[in-house]
Write a structure and sequence with these properties.
By secondary structure, the protein is α/β, with parallel strands linked by helices. 40% of the residues lie in helices and 24% in strands. It is built from seven helices and twelve strands.
Length: 252
């Protein structure tokens, strides 16, 4: 009887000791994975973000430079395996711009352009006055200039676009694919783009990514609307394939 009691106590001790260890390993992995994502290493590199996970419940604290970085950080962490919830306690350095203000629109345009592989987000200057966006900078060719203007004009809040970009006189060498982008970052970029563009922001779209392959679920009012989503998502950095399972249901 005494031996059984000892064995029981030993089993309980091992269980109690094992559970925190397992949770700690998972939490450590979540914290390390967040900092290693493409979003954190590029778009959020200059922000002061602390990631703390406890039993899969993540708390984000610190400061970010732009309001858009709040959702980028939260979405990316929320897409990581093992994360159960995200408590976003991040603050914006300098405060948040009013919704639909020129500063708010500028932030949305600049952030969205960064996600697309066929335009130059870093090489495009974006100014906004009374909802009118002015684009400057050098495009690789006429097609890139036109696409940049199309993307900017489709951002929520934009009234018009003045495309003053110049076109390079000599063709530039094509960029390589670059580093492989993790699935969590791809999903974040896709969701942000769909919510930011006027033509897609009202759609309820579910996004799943596995090894760079993005699968889309939801409803569209027309085949053209469905095709537009595929075109938009296919140009997001890191996306290797788009599987569009959105169902077309014409509005009555």
């Amino acid at each position: 009887m005494k031996m059984k009691y000892v064995v029981f106590l030993l089993a309980v001790a091992l269980m109690v000791a094992g559970l925190p260890m397992y949770a700690s390993d998972t939490d450590d992995r979540i914290e390390a994975s967040a900092k290693a994502t493409y979003v954190f290493k590029t778009y959020l590199a200059d922000d002061d973000i602390k990631v703390k996970s406890k039993d899969g419940h993540v708390t984000l604290s610190g400061t970010v430079l732009y309001e858009s970085h709040l959702s980028l950080a939260e979405e990316t962490v929320g897409n990581l395996p093992g994360v159960k919830s995200v408590d976003n306690k991040l603050d914006v350095k300098g405060g948040r711009p009013a919704e639909n203000s020129d500063a708010w629109i500028q932030m949305k345009v600049k952030t969205s352009l960064l996600f697309h592989r066929n335009v130059s987000g870093t090489g495009t200057e974006v100014d906004v006055k009374d909802g009118v966006v002015t684009l400057r900078g050098e495009a690789d060719d006429k097609a890139q200039k036109q696409l940049t203007g199309e993307y900017a004009k489709d951002i929520v809040g934009v009234r018009d676009v003045k495309n003053e970009m110049t076109v390079a006189k000599a063709p530039k060498a094509k960029q390589t694919m670059g580093e492989k982008i993790d699935d969590a970052s791809i999903t974040t970029q896709v969701k942000f783009a769909l919510l930011t563009h006027t033509s897609t922001h009202v759609m309820s779209t579910k996004v799943e990514t596995q090894n760079g392959v993005v699968t889309l679920y939801g409803k569209a009012t027309s085949g053209a609307e469905k095709d537009l989503v595929s075109k938009l998502v296919g140009d997001i950095k890191g996306v290797v394939e788009v599987r569009n399972k959105i169902v077309v249901e014409p509005s009555k």
